[in-house]
Design brief:
Elements lengths: L1 E8 L6 E5 L8 E6 L2 E8 L20 E9 L4 E8 L6 E7 L3 E8 L4 E9 L17 E4 L5 E6 L3 E6 L25 E4 H4 L6 E6 L7 E6 L16 E7 L9 E8 L3 E6 L7 E5 L2 E6 L2 E7 L13 E2 L11 E6 L2 E5 L4 E9 L5 E11 L5 E4 L4 E5 L5 E12 L4 H8 L19 H13 L9 E12 L8 E4 L17 E6 L6 E5 L6 E7 L5 E6 L31 E7 L4 E6 L3 E3 L13 E5 L4 E6 L2 E6 L2 E7 L6 E7 L2 E6 L4 E8 L7 E6 L9 E9 L12 H6 L7 H14 L2 H4 L11 H8 L3 E3 L6 E3 L2 E8 L4 E5 L4 E6 L8 E2 L16 H4 L7 E9 L5 E8 L2 E9 L11 E5 L13 H9 L5 H7 L4 E7 L2 E6 L5 E5 L5 E5 L6 E7 L7 E6 L3 E6 L12 E5 L3 E8 L4 E11 L2 E6 L2 E6 L10 E11 ...
Parallel strand pairs: 1-92, 21-22
Antiparallel strand pairs: 1-91, 2-3, 3-4, 4-5, 6-7, 7-8, 8-9, 10-11, 11-12, 12-13, 14-15, 15-16, 16-17, 18-19, 19-20, 20-21, 23-24, 24-25, 25-26, 27-28, 28-29, 29-30, 31-32, 32-33, 33-65, 34-64, 35-36, 36-37, 37-38, 39-40, 40-41, 41-42, 43-44, 44-45, 45-46, 47-50, 48-49, 50-51, 51-52, 53-57, ...
Helix pairs in contact: 9-10
């Protein structure tokens, strides 16, 4: 069986974070890693005030946000991460370690906006493994605080030392990047820790210490291991040892060691200077150790009595355990600790004059997310990363309490940065803390005069921002959305959503995911024949608005109009083949008969100008300027052919004719009257060597588009720009040509007009005004025009003087990075040389471009390009090559996506008319040019671009910075789209579908669209274990549990069970146990339905819960859906384990008044104790199948009682069962899977076949490929395997054994599977697509918050794509030097006598093919003997058939 794997939703869990100068030396970035993803964020302080879409109350508080700057995906799971500053570089590199013993050093490449691998280190030789086959040790990376070296622990026994070159003297000649450039790394060497001490085993943690002359590594280890049940005999087993690393001599003496630490030590934290030393975390105690100072330790609860002989003081007022805690220093003597329950404590180390710690002070500050990693950011901010909940950005402010220092020091404290000014200095101490005060006074008495008194402070924490996490996905269920507009009710494809159990403990939640956007349709009109539409803002009320002298001043940008009415759309303009319809949109929508708008012919473009005060309407023969319905003036334009395209960048209007003529109009104030504005013609002087085929105008407020050298713009301003001698400029120009070899690759250029250098540099200085209150520059808008020509050249001109600032050749081929080559164009280079293109065949034509700035304060420019059969998306990024050229200091980086722009070949001819007979009929030309990219500023609080066409998508970028692409497949192909803000449809939109229906819609706001899939997260505040959808009543049954302290133990005395209450002192921490309950949740409001909760007994655990279809007389089909749950009562080792089966029907009752959701109720039909624990349930041909103990029973439900029908003996512990027809697939926790069959005639349950090799199964599901059935298994080693029943094969011993037919490593544990048929084929299906009919997609959700799928494939397609995959493996450089083939190989800890079968394609790697440029695609396709079209067809077909949810 052949299949392809796809990652449909990236993993969202966060496991590692570092704060460093990653992107540039000016700003710090938060780099976050989770599973195989790496994200880079920056902290933004000036979030747009109106954070739209949120409640208005939050607008006033300006909260800091994390903005995503970059995201990278790796072919390997990050095991450990650290940052280091190398050599003379002023940016930080990242050290990433991967299983089993790989280390990659990567840094950000500012030239390509990507990751660059600096060095790779691989230590997986067999002699380093000591003969061990399996490796359970994580490669831990630690970096010396002074960046002298890094250390990686591999296989738990060896330290790899990676020294960094520190002689910065040689790097003075910085610009020289010759061959002689020295590497930043010295050769690594390996220390076997057992040579230091043969007992140095079982390393728990290691850290570099502060304040030593040479890098000093402290190792915490446990030579003789013990466990809680054995501490009476063997205790205090942990030790520390510090080794000093002399990198040059490669010697490493032990300089400090200490043994007999408590047995439960888990981690060490190096204390920064001036205190130094180390804090050791144990589960029940906390120790401070330093080399020459007696140790100081405190016990945090009473569990330390009798388990350790280490001298500990009792820490008053604290009763905590430190297992699973995370900690970080926020000052040299203050540490934030997050406990396993999410409580946050601030720990202060109280020191005396000799800098030795003599007390700990705990202050409980907050309760927050269950933390996996913690990183201090700039002062006052803290990042908590989490696998179990949303990661948070916290802001902390300290309130000083008491100062044991003289007044002068107190004043210094006050002069700190303004972020801390908010504190309230309160000196009133609560009575409980007086003892501590006396101690502090003692310090003062004995200390010297200049002693370091410790500031005690309480901290307050507030959440500024969060990063969504839907993991760990324990269970999943498909269901129907509660709200779906009736227009979409009868579609042939079902519209479903996925509900996932996320989180753990108080971070437990349900995540409701919908991959595609379903608009809420307000109303629908039938309006056939419309080809394009625009909505324009009519501002007839704004008489008193200030009139500018021409360009609108900065104060007049739309931000200056807080009242929303000015943004309401007044008119809707619909263009037909021969006429235009004008609708006025107020309370109701009505057609205007007489107005200043042109209605006789089609409209090319309509839009607002002059700060939404005026309306421009462009017809094929002229331009109208209107204010409301009144035409101000009409300019007939005759350039020899009709106008086919128009672009507006306020106050400029650029128009283009069918023959590629360009002209521009500027909005100027009328000099006579002074009141009104008029459009003034400005004919640009640009060369006409090749015809212009499309253009777009762009108004930049991001400050990114500038021709100034950012490196030292202030220094340059001092000298007058005109004083530079002309010769100097020429020299610079030549050097630039030689410098950038990419520009030499593509020929084809011509004569270009550009104004003289002095004039241009003056006009181009994008004036920055630095304002004191905002941390960023206030940027004045600049205006640019992008032009694409027939010969494939893209040019950007600066308006208004049309100076060429950016040029790219072969633009349509989709290079990965667009690099400017305008400066290399001298007028002498004659007619273009087309050698690059002829090899390629004809260069494809660009149909449309759009340059638009999105994101926070519109600071992220994106470029969208519609080439012949393809969509290209580019993101602009700053790139300052230090040349004196006046080119645009920007490059464009291609963004990967899966949007299909390929249409059926039949319709091609109609679309191509506009190139052949352009001048023929202008109507056809206009029809062909309806814009596919529609920018919208505010639809339900989101801004972005709507992409029309055969596969409509929303492209959104919020102030969080990540680009989101959401499909909207529900209404088929979409012809045109427009935002629509109206009193009856606030912040909504309009669109035409293929059938000519105009739908007025709004975006449902209960979903958050700033996520990989639109999502709604419903917090439950308890762990969700199982979720199951009950189809008949359309509600979800959810099984949850909360933790309660357990204070009694069951004991057996004879046959009687009795409970013994455990009495302990008040500092004893009771163990927790889970208390389960089952309840109904309605998808209408996602609230629990009142009075539907079933609480289970104490000690009773729910082990499975499903919706099962059992035989029933009540329904026509003879089957009825019930919710069935299996439980087991766990009461320790002495009491026999029993369980119960619960069968619930969901019945309809009369709802309680005012509570419409209470119409559903649980009715418990059956709840009886079984002979053993009930561990798995499923249904099989109307009967209930249950695994009880080591047997599987088959029951029939009659008269609310179960009667046994058949049983069979099994292996150790069956924990999952699924069935198809009368086959049952059962998974054993250790012994792999078995297939059973139930025969109705003889009422027997028999074993057909099983897998004989041991396997630790996590979850199972079926793979359906027409008439073939596969059995899909996920295991502990993060593999997916497909087994098949093949009795004909020799090695199956006549069908007794299942054969493995495919295997693949996902890189994440899978606990939840679900299955559904492939999407139906559209009408007029080709033969090829009929092959998908009988195939099912198996979806799965991982414990890292990712969603993926496996799709069976035909062998022919599989073979073709396999060759492509092998080629891509070696062709493309992969991030961090990782090998996709090795990552996806079946990973097995024990050596099995079977090779990997593979047979599963890696869709993540195959998708990289879509990212290549046209040349690279054809080269690859030629290598494997096929064409790019066939490959693209295959890849996009996989997308099409899996486009569910």
């Amino acid at each position: 069986m052949y299949a392809v794997y796809r990652q449909a939703h990236p993993p969202t869990a966060v496991e590692f974070s570092v704060y460093c100068n990653f992107i540039s030396s000016q700003e710090n970035n938060l780099v976050v890693a989770g599973t195989s993803q790496l994200y880079v964020y920056r902290i933004i302080h000036d979030v747009e005030n109106a954070s739209k879409g949120e409640k208005s109350s939050e607008v006033k508080i300006r909260k800091e946000k994390l903005e995503q700057v970059a995201a990278f995906s790796l072919f390997g799971n990050v095991m450990s991460m650290a940052s280091v500053q190398l050599g003379a570089s002023n940016r930080d590199a990242l050290l990433l370690s991967f299983q089993d013993a790989k280390l990659s050093v990567v840094e950000y490449d500012s030239g390509t906006h990507d990751l660059k691998t600096l060095s790779l280190h691989y230590f997986e030789e067999p002699e380093l493994r000591d003969g061990f086959v399996q490796n359970v040790h994580i490669p831990i990376v630690r970096v010396d605080p002074e960046n002298r070296c890094a250390v990686m622990l591999i296989y738990g026994t060896r330290l790899v030392v990676l020294p960094f070159r520190k002689d910065t003297l040689t790097d003075e000649q910085e610009g020289v990047v010759g061959e002689g450039q020295k590497s930043n790394f010295l050769p690594s060497y390996i220390i076997d820790v057992r040579e230091l001490d043969e007992k140095l085993l079982n390393i728990a943690d290691m850290k570099f210490l502060h304040g030593y002359y040479e890098p000093t590594l402290l190792i915490l280890y446990e030579p003789n291991q013990t466990w809680p049940g054995r501490v009476a005999v063997r205790q205090d087993t942990c030790c520390i040892v510090a080794i000093s690393l002399n990198i040059m001599q490669k010697v490493h003496p032990v300089i400090w060691s200490l043994s007999n630490l408590p047995f439960d030590c888990t981690q060490v934290m190096a204390v920064p200077k001036p205190i130094g030393g180390v804090v050791v975390f144990a589960v029940n105690s906390l120790l401070y150790l330093n080399q020459s100072v007696p140790p100081y330790g405190v016990s945090l609860n009473s569990q330390t009595t009798g388990t350790t002989a280490f001298p500990l003081r009792v820490q008053e007022e604290v009763k905590i355990t430190l297992d699973c805690s995370q900690a970080t220093f926020i000052a040299s003597d203050k540490m934030v600790i997050s406990l396993k329950g999410g409580e946050i404590y601030v720990l202060t180390l109280i020191t005396d004059g000799m800098r030795s710690v003599r007390a700990f002070h705990f202050d409980k500050a907050a309760a927050s997310v269950l933390t996996t990693c913690m990183t201090p950011m700039e002062s006052g901010y803290l990042f908590l990363g989490s696998r179990l909940g949303n990661s948070l950005l916290l802001k902390y402010t300290e309130k000083l309490q008491e100062t044991p220092i003289e007044e002068g020091k107190e004043k210094e404290r006050q002069e700190e940065p303004p972020s801390k000014k908010k504190r309230v200095d309160s000196t009133n101490w609560s009575a409980g803390k007086t003892a501590l005060l006396d101690e502090v006074d003692e310090i003062e008495v004995y200390g010297s005069e200049a002693q370091t008194g410790t500031q005690l402070a309480t901290y307050s924490f507030e959440v500024c921002d969060s990063i969504l996490n839907i993991g760990p996905c324990a269970n999943a269920s498909m269901g129907e959305p509660a709200f779906l507009s009736e227009e979409f009710q009868d579609s042939p494809e079902p519209d479903l959503e996925v509900v996932v159990c996320s989180g753990f403990g108080k971070n437990g939640a349900l995540s409701v995911l919908q991959r595609s956007i379903r608009p809420q349709v307000v109303t629908t009109f039938e309006l056939p024949g419309c080809q394009d539409m625009w909505t324009v803002i009519s501002s007839e009320k704004k008489e008193e608005a200030p009139k500018g002298e021409g360009e609108p001043t900065e104060g007049e940008v739309p931000l200056a109009t807080p009242d929303d009415d000015d943004k309401k759309h007044g008119f809707l303009i619909l263009s037909r083949a021969d006429s235009t319809m004008i609708l006025q949109t107020g309370q109701e929508i009505m057609e205007l008969d007489a107005s200043g708008f042109a209605t006789q012919g089609p409209t090319v473009f309509a839009g607002n100008i002059g700060d939404n005060k005026y309306i421009v309407q462009v017809s094929p023969m002229g331009i109208r300027l209107l204010e409301g319905v009144n035409q101000l003036h009409f300019i007939p334009v005759d350039l020899g052919s009709p106008i086919v395209h128009c672009a507006v960048a306020d106050p400029y209007v650029v128009i283009m004719t069918a023959e590629g003529q360009i002209t521009m109009f500027v909005l100027k104030s009328d000099s006579y009257v002074g009141k009104t504005h008029r459009l003034a013609l400005q004919k640009p002087q640009i060369h006409t060597q090749s015809r212009v085929i499309t253009l777009c105008a762009y108004r930049d407020v991001s400050g990114m588009f500038t021709t100034e050298n950012r490196v030292s713009s202030t220094a340059k301003e001092d000298t007058a720009p005109g004083t530079q001698p002309e010769t100097e400029t020429v020299i610079q120009e030549l050097s630039h040509v030689m410098d950038d070899e990419e520009e030499m690759l593509y020929g084809d250029s011509g004569q270009f007009f550009s104004p003289s250098k002095e004039e241009s540099s003056r006009s181009a200085s994008a004036s920055f005004s630095y304002s004191k209150d905002s941390p960023h520059y206030m940027v004045e808008p600049t205006h640019w025009c992008m032009v694409v020509r027939e010969n494939g050249v893209m040019e950007i001109y600066q308006l208004p003087d049309w100076r060429l600032v950016f040029l790219v050749k072969n633009f349509p081929v989709g290079q990965r990075v667009l690099v400017d080559s305008s400066s290399g164009q001298s007028a002498a280079q004659g007619e273009g040389k087309k050698e690059e293109v002829t090899r390629q065949g004809e260069i494809p034509l660009v149909k449309e471009v759009l340059l638009v700035s999105l994101g926070n304060r519109q600071s992220r420019p994106y470029l969208l390009v519609h080439v012949d059969q393809e969509l290209l998306i580019y993101e602009a990024f700053r790139r300052d090559v230090q040349q004196g050229q006046n080119n645009l200091k920007v490059r464009f980086k291609k963004v990967p996506h899966n949007i299909n722009f390929r249409e059926k070949k039949v319709k091609q001819s109609k679309k191509d008319k506009k190139w052949e007979g352009v001048s023929g009929e202008d109507a056809a030309a206009v029809k062909g040019r309806a814009a596919r990219f529609r920018y919208f500023e505010d639809i339900s609080g989101y801004s972005g671009v709507f992409i029309c066409g055969p596969s409509p998508h929303w492209l959104l970028v919020t102030s969080r910075g990540a680009l989101r692409l959401h499909p909207m497949t529900i209404d088929g192909s979409i012809e045109c789209f427009s935002p629509f803000h109206n009193i009856n449809c606030p912040k909504g939109f309009l669109y035409f579908n293929k059938q000519g229906e105009l739908r007025i819609s709004v975006l449902p706001t209960y979903l958050s669209y700033d996520a990989p899939w639109p999502v709604r997260k419903i917090p439950l505040r308890c762990t969700a274990h199982y979720v199951s959808y009950h189809v008949e009543s359309k509600v979800y049954a959810v099984c949850t549990s909360v933790n309660e302290p357990c204070t009694r133990i069951p004991r057996m005395t004879g046959d009687e069970k009795e409970f013994e209450i455990i009495d302990k002192d008040e500092r004893y921490i009771s163990p927790l146990q889970e208390r389960f309950s089952i309840q109904l949740i309605s998808p209408v409001s996602w609230e629990t339905i009142p009075n539907t909760r079933i609480d289970l007994e104490e000690w009773e655990h729910v082990t499975c819960m499903k919706t099962v279809a059992l035989k029933s007389e009540e329904t026509v089909s003879g089957l009825k859906g019930y919710v069935a749950a299996g439980t087991c009562l766990m009461q320790g080792e002495e009491v026999t384990c029993r369980g119960r089966i619960l069968i619930m029907d969901i019945i309809e009752v009369v709802p309680e008044p005012g509570q419409p959701l209470t119409k559903n109720k649980f009715k418990v039909l059956y709840e009886k104790e079984q002979k053993g624990p009930v561990t798995a349930l499923c249904h099989c041909s109307g009967y209930l199948v249950s695994a009880i103990g080591q047997k599987i029973f088959l029951w029939s439900l009659k008269d609310n009682d179960l009667t046994g029908m058949a049983f069979i003996d099994t292996q150790l512990y069956i924990h999952q069962m699924f069935s198809i027809k009368n086959f049952i697939l059962a998974a054993d926790v250790m012994k792999s899977i078995s297939i059973l069959r139930y025969q109705e005639e003889s009422k027997t349950l028999s074993l057909i076949s099983r897998d004989a090799k041991p396997l630790e199964v996590y979850s199972i599901e079926f793979m359906v490929d027409n008439n073939q059935l596969g059995f899909l298994v996920s295991d502990r080693d993060k593999n997916l395997m497909v087994y098949m029943y093949l009795p004909e094969a020799k090695e199956s011993f006549g069908g007794m054994r299942l054969l493995r037919r495919a295997d693949f490593n996902v890189g994440a544990n899978v606990n939840a599977f679900w299955r559904m048929p492939c999407r139906g084929t559209p009408e007029g299906a080709s033969k090829k697509s009929l092959g998908w009919d009988g195939k099912h997609i198996t979806w799965f959700a991982t414990l890292d918050g990712g969603i993926g799928l496996l799709l069976p494939m035909q062998e022919k397609t599989y073979r073709r794509l396999l060759m492509l995959q092998n080629a891509l493996n070696t062709m493309i450089p992969h991030h961090a030097g990782l090998n996709p083939k090795a990552f996806r190989m079946n990973h097995c800890d024990r050596r099995s006598l079977q090779n990997a079968v593979r047979n599963v394609l890696d869709g993540e790697l195959l998708n990289k093919y879509l990212y290549l440029s046209t040349m690279e695609r054809s080269e690859l396709a030629k290598k494997i003997g096929t064409t790019p079209d066939i490959i693209l067809e295959d890849l996009l077909e996989v997308d099409r058939v899996t486009a569910h949810f």
